[in-house]
Amino acid sequence: MTDIPDLDDAVPDPTVPRRRTSKLAIVGAGAVGSTMAYAALMRGAARTVALFDINRAKAEAEALDLGHGIQFMPMAEVVGSDDIAVCAGADVVMFTAGAKQKPGQTRIDLAEATIALVRKVLPSVVEVAPDAVYVMVTNPVDVVTYAALKISGLPPSQLFGSGTVLDSSRLRYLLARETGVAVQNVHAYVAGEHGDSELPLWSSASIGAVPLLEWNGLGGRGPLTAEVRERIAHEVVDSAYRIIEGKGATNYAVALAGSRIIEAVLNDESRILPVSSLLDGYYGISDVCLSVPAVVGSGGVGDRLAVPMSADELAGLRRSADAVRSVARSFGF
């Protein structure tokens, strides 16, 4: 009789490469964190999604609810816990935990409570996932990102903020609506603070292959005059406040924007995204986290693009840098 080998004692063949699986950890299972987990799962961004929250029942319930829908998504595992070990070995960590923005509050109003939370939680996450790429999503994201770099000691390439990826999406949406073309054919970035001092980079924007400032309109729609551009810029800034006033939180679009960043890292896409990172000599701007178009891949944030700017845009970017830097200094950073 032929002996049947005991599979439990089998030794893996070192010449056969093991299938590498990707792991996404999300810190904070609130509206943004849970929706980001959902968006990432629907897009098949990661093989394992871990939700960490100090509210154990919330983390476990969100993970269970998402897990019940795995049949209808790309295959993945979803776990939730109040134990920081759930984040162990993550490739990407999205930090969404923080104070909730209330109607009438600015993002800066949230800084003190959020920085205290980052100081309490982030070092423990870094301890169990030292090689992960960290993306700060919590507002005020530029100040929080700068503080997180100081608190964690991680290199500036490994930790950055979601920045104006969402703002740029809002800008493109409004431009598409104004011009009557598909949003996928609108190319424009919002730079600076993710907040009131942010600015659209009109001089480098385009619709199709047409520079935005030379756009003359289609189908009876007029050109994008200075007045139209100013109205759109205000709407980009004010839209978050409008959403928060109406439904209490922004979660869908920011989750999709976060998923785009996650995929850029996990798939090593070298995708250009306006994330918030520590600038060092960018048009003379240093020692502040601001959003400018940058290359994002498996190593985190790489080169920042020296996007052509008008004198007004460059002055606006410097004003934005001063505003963010002054807030960071007021909290001792």
TrEMBL record:
Please tell me where NAD(+) binds in this chain: G28, A29, G30, A31, V32, G33, D53, K58, G98, A99, V137, T138, N139, S162
Q: Does the keyword Isomerase apply?
A: no
Q: Where in the cell is it found?
A: Cytoplasm
How might one describe the regulation of this protein's activity?
Allosterically activated by fructose 1,6-bisphosphate (FBP).
InterPro entries from the entry?
Answer: L-lactate/malate_DH (IPR001557), L-lactate_DH (IPR011304), L-lactate_DH_AS (IPR018177), Lactate/malate_DH_C (IPR022383), Lactate/malate_DH_N (IPR001236), Lactate_DH/Glyco_Ohase_4_C (IPR015955), NAD(P)-bd_dom_sf (IPR036291)
Chain sites annotated for binding substrate: Q101, R107, N139, P140, V141, D142, D167, S168, S169, R170, T250
Pathway named in the protein's UniProt entry: Fermentation; pyruvate fermentation to lactate; (S)-lactate from pyruvate: step 1/1
**Keyword tags:** Allosteric enzyme, Cytoplasm, NAD, Oxidoreductase, Phosphoprotein
Pfam families, sorted? Ldh_1_C, Ldh_1_N
> Where would you say this protein principally sits, based on its record?
cytoplasm
Q: Which domain of life is it from?
A: Bacteria
Residues holding beta-D-fructose 1,6-bisphosphate: R172, H187
**PROSITE patterns, from UniProt?**
L_LDH
Q: Does the keyword Methyltransferase apply?
A: no
Indicate the residues that form the catalytic site. H194
What's the EC number here?
1.1.1.27
- Name all Lactate/malate dehydrogenase C-terminal domain ranges: 164-324
Q: How does it assemble?
A: Homotetramer.
Q: What does this protein do?
A: Catalyzes the conversion of lactate to pyruvate.
- Entry's family note: Belongs to the LDH/MDH superfamily. LDH family.
In terms of HAMAP family, this protein maps to:
Lactate_dehydrog
NCBIfam families this protein is in? L-LDH-NAD
What is the protein name for this chain? L-lactate dehydrogenase
Native organism is: Cellulomonas fimi (strain ATCC 484 / DSM 20113 / JCM 1341 / CCUG 24087 / LMG 16345 / NBRC 15513 / NCIMB 8980 / NCTC 7547 / NRS-133)
